[in-house]
Design brief:
The structure is a homodimer.
Chain A lengths: L10 H19 L5 H11 L7 H10 L6 H13 L3 E4 L4 E4 L8 E7 L5 E6 L5 H9 L2 E12 L1 H9 L1
Parallel strand pairs in A: 3-5
Antiparallel strand pairs in A: 1-2, 3-4
Helix pairs in contact in A: 1-2, 2-4, 3-4
Chain A binds a DNA duplex through helix 4.
DNA sequence: TGATATATGTCATAGTATAACATATCAAGA
DNA sequence: TCTTGATATGTTATACTATGACATATATCA
């Protein structure tokens, strides 16, 4: 239940590792990790921020891929349908998955100051929503858990000011 | 922790009651529940569905209020800032608050079939997000909890098909 | 009543997302 | 290997969501 994302780490390494892992998972599942899709994943991994579809599109387009919105949306759809990228509804934006090893139900902490997004894995069966759903006989298929606030770094800086 | 919204109830009554309650709360807090704002609230209360800002705008405009997007967005902003309406991030839409008696941290169950939205009150300190935030030293200011799935009615209908 | 803040309305534009269709590429069986 | 059906890419066009900026009107209160 730890929420990585607010500490530094070996970034290049984590990108390469994740891409390799995703490649393997696609191969195993018969998914086509095509050039645009792979490049999109890399672009997402280069940030721990949420990127808008149009930010991604700008970079893809610069690099010789198509220049129209569906190019980015389709790559992002593929990646998020397969859990390699998540959509942050609060921001209408996307973030690379921090735990690409398996399917999971993510929760996010979004810093309103520096816009960093930290991801944590949750147990979907244990949360508030599960309890509410059970009491209403509602079947949850997807859950959005997003908290907005101040990350430790920004909070300290704010206090210092 | 019960999630009302999937049962029938005396609707006209609930609208009138809620409007009266909101009027009182505004008076007490020195908030101006102006004509557009009140009408917007009523429009929202007539549905247990999420309405887009442009749906609301269309109705307001029909009824002689302004016809431009800010008219609807400003009324919805006022209502949601004060907790009388909530934004459903997943849908980029708004829903009338089902518990307008006090400030609270809402969670939503959204039926993907009939688009009904049920609201439940939660204890923000008890959920997943609170635990994650505590372990990361993150300060939550606002939480988005939205589950998408099938409501009891639609599930039964689906099974019958 | 006059001064200040708040609210409404408009025009203009920015940002997010998808439908529809042509072309290209891939995967698998004949 | 060739064909065929499915998948993926790229385009144009358009729809949906949201806000900035500014003028006018209304409310609040000294």
């Amino acid at each position: 239940m730890d929420a990585l994302g607010f500490e530094t780490h070996d970034h290049d390494h984590c990108i390469a590792d994740t891409v390799a892992l995703v490649e393997k998972r696609c191969l195993d599942s018969g998914l086509q990790l095509t050039a645009v899709r792979k490049r999109t994943l890399e672009i997402m991994l280069e940030e721990h921020r949420a990127l808008g579809a149009y930010d991604v599109l700008a970079r893809l387009s610069q690099e010789g891929f198509g220049s129209q919105p569906p190019v980015a949306y389709r790559a992002l759809d593929f990646l998020s349908k397969n859990g390699f990228v998540h959509k942050i509804e609060r921001l209408n934006a996307f973030v690379a998955c921090a735990y690409p090893h398996a399917d999971h139900s993510p929760a996010f902490l979004i810093c309103r100051e520096c816009h960093l997004v930290a991801e944590a894995e949750t147990d979907p069966a244990q949360g508030m929503l599960a309890k509410i759903a059970a009491s209403s006989d509602f079947v949850i298929e997807r859950a959005v858990l997003e908290a907005e606030g101040l990350c430790p770094t920004c909070r300290k800086q704010g206090a210092a000011t």
